[in-house]
Design brief:
The complex is a heterodimer.
Chain A (H helix, E strand, L loop, with lengths): L8 H6 L6 E5 L7 H9 L5 E6 L4 H8 L3 E6 L11 H8 L4 E4 L2 H13 L3 E4 L6 H4 L5 E4 L7 E6 L5 E10 L4 E2 L4 H9 L2 E10 L13 E2 L4 E6 L17 H10 L3 H12 L7
Helix pairs in contact in A: 3-4, 5-7
Chain B lengths: L6 H12 L5 E4 L4 H13 L5 E4 L13 H8 L5 E4 L3 E3 L4 E2 L2 E2 L7 E2 L6 H7 L2 E5 L8 E2 L21 E5 L3 E6 L4 E7 L5 H7 L18 H16 L3 H6 L3
Parallel strand pairs in B: 1-2, 3-8, 4-9, 8-10
Antiparallel strand pairs in B: 4-5, 6-7, 10-11, 11-12
Classes of the chains: A alpha/beta, B alpha/beta.
Chain lengths: 274, 242
């Protein structure tokens, strides 16, 4: 029997097992920093983190907290705020297995996952060190037009997709608007966990304008309300990033001790009031 | 040498000239100067040239998520794109990953983003890096995020069109697999370019200065373009123009 999707944030985080393949989106799509904080609080370990197709503060904090065993991404960037110190430090110390990718490769591998295909071909990549560094990626000859080498990538089928969205309804439908990679993530993953700004009492499919931007409840396992749940990252069209908070993070995270102090403080914030 | 325009204004004007003839230009993340240049070209064509700026809401009409950029590129719907790199070498190879032995790099950069795909597929890739030093322009990159040229038989409609830095503009010759110095920005010299470039390049006997932006172009940059780019890059917009 299907469970009711709406739950407490701590319950959502507790349902992410150690060692899970967890897929998350980039900052302009909706990043659940609220759930990230709960994951760090409960001390999740051994995650295989897949970033669609890049990540910022979310991956940086999970890596710094020791939650990540394998990182699959096309970039980790905090943009103009400066370097992702904990990501860089973890690589230098060999604490994470790094799977460097390129953005369309992650999109394509998830698309293979959503179609139930074992692999998908992709242009580009040939003769790059990126390809050479990925033993799981191969080059085959185009079976329809021999003499045309093409890269093939295994499908990605994450255990859990996690993101933050503006709105859900009681049935478990989630509004994502035009951030379609979130839909692909949900399709490709075994379960989808979402934090939202608010719950609508009306079924989202009753509104013809919202319906095309909805992840249907059939894909969604858990939803928790987290107001300002992307903070200090922004949620496009709702609120911007908290530049001061991110700057302070980057400054603190230069050293492991500084990062720990920031983390203690962050974990002890009761309610975010950005 | 006193110039009545900033370096950023010169680079915007130069890139806008390089985009002549394009139907659709896409600008990647963290690229305010290429973004401003694409918007300038768009204005000069009365909107006939389309511009997509990733990270913008107003200049991004994609409805199929992040993958749409890459699908468009694969179908030849993007004529020009911009790539940079922590290292760029004389064969046009670019490194966005790091220096030293991968993966425990001495210096680690964010990562390859879409380069290992778009560099192969977009016909006019303009390499853009303001810093022009031997640290960036190296004989051989430590990690090839994406190669400048491909072996015969590899599907490669795209590749490097040229390299624009804060000091000069080089074109790229795909047959010779080399850059050619085309112009030096006002206030700089060929000797300076040689001193600051870590790879060999072709150099004609006479190298002209890069043409300064015309007064009408500067007026556009300081007015309409500054306002347009502010939607995506507010801090850049408040500082880049004279």
């Amino acid at each position: 029997m299907n469970q009711q999707p709406i739950c407490e944030l701590a319950e959502l985080a507790a349902a992410v097992p150690d060692g899970a393949v967890l897929v998350v989106a980039q900052d302009n799509c909706g990043v659940s920093m609220a759930a990230t904080r709960e994951l760090v609080r409960r001390g999740v370990r051994g995650l295989h983190l897949v970033c669609v197709p890049i990540s910022g503060l979310q991956a940086e904090i999970l890596i710094g907290a020791g939650a990540v065993a394998t990182l699959e991404t096309s970039a980790i960037t905090l943009g103009e705020f400066g370097p992702a110190h904990r990501f860089i430090d973890a690589l230098r110390k060999g604490r994470i297995r790094m799977l460097d990718a390129t953005c369309p490769a992650i999109h394509a591998a998830l698309q293979a996952g959503q179609k139930g295909l074992p692999f998908i071909p992709l242009r580009g990549l040939i003769e790059s060190d990126l390809l050479a560094s990925r033993p799981d990626w191969k080059v085959i000859d185009n079976p329809f037009s021999p003499g045309d080498p093409i890269a093939v990538l295994p499908a990605i089928n994450p255990d859990i997709a996690l993101f933050h969205a503006p709105l859900a309804d009681r049935a478990g439908n989630v509004y994502i608007g035009r951030r379609r990679e979130l839909l692909t993530m949900a399709h490709a993953s075994k379960q989808t966990f979402v934090t939202v700004e608010a719950i609508s009492e009306q079924n989202l499919f009753d509104d013809a304008k919202l319906a095309p931007g909805v992840v249907p409840a059939i894909y969604v396992s858990r939803i928790a309300v987290a107001k300002q749940g992307a903070w200090p990252v922004g949620l496009p069209e709702h609120y911007g990033a908290d530049d001061a908070a991110i700057s302070r993070y980057v400054h603190s995270a230069k050293t492991e001790e500084g990062f720990r102090r920031y983390l203690d403080e962050w974990l002890n914030v009761e309610e975010v009031t950005a | 040498m006193n110039l009545d325009y900033s370096r950023a204004e010169l680079l915007v004007a130069v890139i806008a000239r390089l985009l002549e003839g394009c139907r659709h230009v896409t600008v990647g993340a963290s690229s305010p100067i290429p973004g401003a240049a694409a918007l300038l070209r768009r204005d000069l064509t009365q909107g006939a040239m389309r511009v997509t700026i990733l990270g913008s809401n107003r200049y991004n009409a994609y409805t199929n998520g992040g993958v749409e950029t890459f699908d468009m590129a694969a179908q030849g719907r993007i004529d020009a794109f911009f790539l940079g790199g922590g290292q760029i070498d004389g064969q046009g190879n670019i490194n966005l990953v790091g220096t030293g032995r991968y993966p425990a790099s001495d210096v680690r950069w964010p990562g390859s983003f879409g380069s290992a795909y778009l560099y192969y597929l977009v016909p006019k890739v303009i390499l853009f890096r303001e810093e022009h030093t031997r640290r960036v322009l190296v004989p051989k990159v430590d990690f090839i995020s994406s190669p400048g040229v491909s072996a015969p038989g590899v599907y490669r409609p795209g590749g490097p069109y040229g390299l624009l830095t804060g000091l000069a503009w080089f074109s790229f010759d795909k047959q010779k697999q080399r850059f050619r110095l085309e112009s030096v920005h006002p206030g700089h010299s060929v000797e300076e370019i040689r001193d600051q470039t870590g790879f060999e390049f072709d150099c004609p006997d006479e190298v002209p200065f890069t043409s300064a932006p015309e007064p009408a172009i500067l007026t556009l940059i300081r007015g309409r373009i500054r306002n347009e780019i502010a939607e995506t890059y507010p801090r850049f917009a408040s500082t880049f123009a004279n």
